[in-house]
């Protein structure tokens, strides 16, 4: 979201984003690497390098992004050393899967670009502003 709110020519570093969002650098670096691999973020190397959101990234549905980043696994895992005797006919497991699909579907109604519409955008910009 932080990259979506800055201009397309304004590049941010991983450190700047991590600091402005109060997230550990190592966690942010891992997330950035995943987003870059997905084509959501572009990284430019060098002295004037940094990160920017791609056009495709701006249009990416949030549900698809969350599903990809989190992995499309079940909300409840019922397998273990002793398999659950209900695993083949469990109504709760099926209901949770349907709820999970509804969650992703709802998030797909919003793109990454939509997330920074007012009033969110100005708040995100203020997070990266130098104190003063």
UniProtKB/TrEMBL annotation:
Keywords: DNA-binding. The keyword Metal-binding does not apply. Gene3D superfamilies: Winged helix-like DNA-binding domain superfamily/Winged helix DNA-binding domain. GO terms for molecular function: DNA binding; DNA-binding transcription factor activity. Its cofactor is [2Fe-2S] cluster. PROSITE patterns: HTH_RRF2_2. This is Transcriptional regulator. It comes from Streptomyces bottropensis ATCC 25435. The lineage of its organism: Bacteria, Bacillati, Actinomycetota, Actinomycetes, Kitasatosporales.
């Amino acid at each position: 979201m932080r990259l979506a709110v800055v201009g397309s020519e304004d590049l941010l570093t991983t450190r700047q984003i991590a600091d402005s969002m109060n997230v550990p650098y190592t966690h942010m670096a891992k997330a950035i690497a995943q987003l870059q691999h997905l084509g959501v973020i572009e990284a430019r190397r060098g002295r004037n390098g940094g990160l920017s959101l791609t056009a495709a990234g701006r249009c990416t549905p949030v549900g698809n992004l969350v599903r990809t980043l989190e992995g499309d696994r079940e909300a409840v895992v019922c397998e273990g050393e002793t398999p659950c005797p209900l695993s083949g006919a469990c109504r709760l497991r099926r209901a949770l899967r349907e709820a999970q699909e509804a969650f992703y579907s709802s998030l797909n109604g919003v793109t990454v670009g939509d997330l920074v519409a007012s009033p969110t955008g100005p708040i995100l910009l203020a997070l990266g502003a130098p104190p003063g």
